[in-house]
Specification:
Elements (H helix, E strand, L loop, with lengths): L2 H6 L3 H27 L1 H11 L2 H23 L8 H25 L5 H7 L3 H13 L5 H18 L8 H23 L6 H23 L10 H26 L4 H8 L2 H14 L5 H18 L15 H10 L7
């Protein structure tokens, strides 16, 4: 090898070290996201029952937006969010991933309990499969269809018992929430790079807060009086900082370093069981044997979809990788389609 070839040759050791470091950070962020995500149904249920639902989700997003703004000011990147090339994509992601999900989940949990909500949220891989089929135009494998059917069987086994998913309109709102999450994941992945996880989190929260504040002031201004209650303010602050800000930051940080499929394989199994545990401990709810079995069946379907995926995220380097990037974004939380 001559001197020029030596200079042009890659440095496998440094590249391997970089990938290993990214993997360790990604796993740590995914674990943190699991713990934070497990608290979401319980905290949202409490806020939805004890406060005006629109005030609760608006307040939580405003807190997350303030935290995001501080982070962006420190990085001197706040103006980046309002550049013409990022403004509309970030606004669209905020409407889908923050505004829509906040409203559907909060209003849905006003009438059904946190355990039932946790079970309904396991529909996320189903929407993932639909997005991959529509966006990328790929055909699902028999394994994916079987796993999706397993998830639906798990949810259906609890639905058949009656009562827990009543009224049906509230259950339908929670049932639809994951489709908005999945759509926002696709949008977020397509913007990283050039944006960082902090940029994406900030854009989603700031634009989402502006929209929700406008809705609150127009639709329910009288609800602002509830902010005089100490417990209400504490619930909003905790939910906004942990469930909205830190959850989004750790999630985007994880999927920026790991493949979305592999990350979800690590996160998904822990969230529903911890969510049920938190609901029992802090809300006094009780999980029936049928609900536990239903959750376990749904989890087994999720694992069938995601296990075996490559842990490392592929970063597109040029336009020739665009198709590959679209496939990774659309695959959301299941294995690449066969």
């Amino acid at each position: 090898m001559n001197q020029q070839e030596y200079k042009d040759a890659p440095a496998p050791k440094s590249r391997a070290e970089g990938m290993a470091r990214a993997f360790r950070i990604g796993v740590a962020l995914a674990i943190a996201n699991t713990l934070i995500g497990a608290s979401q149904p319980g905290l949202t249920r409490w806020g939805a029952v004890h406060l005006d639902p629109l005030l609760f989700c608006t307040g939580a997003v405003v807190v997350a937006a303030i935290c995001s703004t501080i982070a962006m000011v420190k990085k001197r990147e706040l103006g980046l969010l309002f550049q013409s090339r990022f403004r509309m994509p970030l606004f669209a992601m905020a409407m889908v991933g923050t505004v829509a999900t906040s409203l559907t989940l909060t209003f849905g949990l006003t009438r059904i309990d946190a355990i039932a909500g946790t079970i309904l949220l396991q529909t996320e891989p189903v929407y993932s499969l639909v997005l991959a089929t529509i966006v990328v135009g790929e055909r699902p494998s028999w394994r994916q269809l079987l796993a999706t059917a397993t998830i639906l069987v798990g949810i259906g086994s609890v639905f058949g018992a009656g009562g827990k998913f009543s009224p049906i309109w509230a259950a339908a709102l929670v049932f639809c929430t994951p489709v908005f999450w999945q759509a926002s994941h696709v949008m977020g992945l397509r913007m990283m790079p050039p944006l960082t996880p902090v940029n994406v989190t900030a854009g989603r929260m700031i634009y989402g807060a502006l929209a929700l504040v406008a809705m609150l002031l127009i639709a329910r201004p009288a609800a602002l009086a509830q902010l005089s209650s100490g417990p209400a303010v504490i619930a909003i602050l905790v939910t906004g900082f942990f469930v909205y800000f830190l959850s989004a930051l750790t999630w985007y940080g994880a999927i920026n370093r790991l493949s979305l499929a592999w990350t979800t394989a690590l996160v998904v199994p822990g969230i529903p069981m911890l969510s049920i545990l938190f609901a029992v401990m802090f809300l006094g709810e009780s999980a029936t044997r049928r609900e536990i079995i239903g959750v376990l069946i749904a989890i087994s379907g999720v694992l069938t979809l995601v296990l075996g995926a490559d842990a490392h995220r592929r970063h597109p380097q040029d336009a020739r990788d665009a198709i590959s990037a679209d496939a990774e974004a659309a695959e959301a939380i299941h294995q690449p389609l066969a």
